[in-house]
Amino acid sequence: xxxxxSVDTRxxxxxxxxxxxxxxxxQGIDLSEPMLFGLGRGLGFVYWxxxxxxxxFLGGRVKPFELSRNLADTLGLELxxxxxxxxxxxxANVVEAIxxxxxxxxxxxxxxxxxxxxxxxxxxxxxxxxxxxxRVARLVDTEQQGGAVxxxxxxxxxxxxxxxxxxxxxxxxxxxxxxxxxxxxxxIMASVTACAHAFLNPPIANLGHRGxxxxxxxxxxxxxxxxxxxxxxxxxxxxxxxxxxxGALFRNLYRDFLAECAECVDSDHLxxxxxxxxxxxxxxxxxxxxxxxxxxxxxxxxxxxxxxxLLDLSRIEREAMEALSRLES
Length: 329
Fold this sequence. Notes:
329 residues, 8 strands, 2 domains
């Protein structure tokens, strides 16, 4: 049975950072989840709604797999990515990686994985594969999904072949570390300022601080926007707090990243950013609670309060990113 026994299967909160952690620890690099998320410039925001959607979507990070590309760029890692429309070739790519002694990352649709209890289609889910036999694949998923888990080869094939928003064609990837990593201080400076500039200068109004402002105005209408507010609003709040975000729509992770950065970068701008993101994280959790209460009670007053808090968050996060954008000055 091909299985890598030396793999550290320690899970984290978010799927992509969990997988990156597995791949990097196998290369001898052990970084905390907040550091992986921050160096990967993972923080973002998107408010998305359209007539074809059942309910609006709030996202707090960059699009799937962009974090992995960013982290490889920041740390000078070799990121080997394979995609194919052939299920046979896609599986052969996985077998080749395992046989060479390397765990491999997979992007797939979590709906088909047998250990998932919440059956929702999400084509941007990422796991690490470290072994298989003639029946099952051995994966590392998030802590809330069980960490080291198994799923049948058939379900894995379905998950990898799924199509839809954010899906990839049997994508697998591996990381190879250079002999010497860049200085951590240099990597922090580059990633923090790049993330700040992207957040402050979104190409459309749905993204970054402008997107939070837009969400603050739109959320007040959510009772009328939904056919089933008692279902949709608590579900939206649950996704903000529990769906691999680390809580507070990824703001807890970025707050902790900035705190870790402050241990090796002495900067008032960094300390300001950390203080403001600590404030923002608490407010995002408050927004989720207000949205839940609105759905359960049917009372619009909670959405009005959530909207006001989101407008405050747009300002707070803009001020935080303005400070962080000046980190190198």
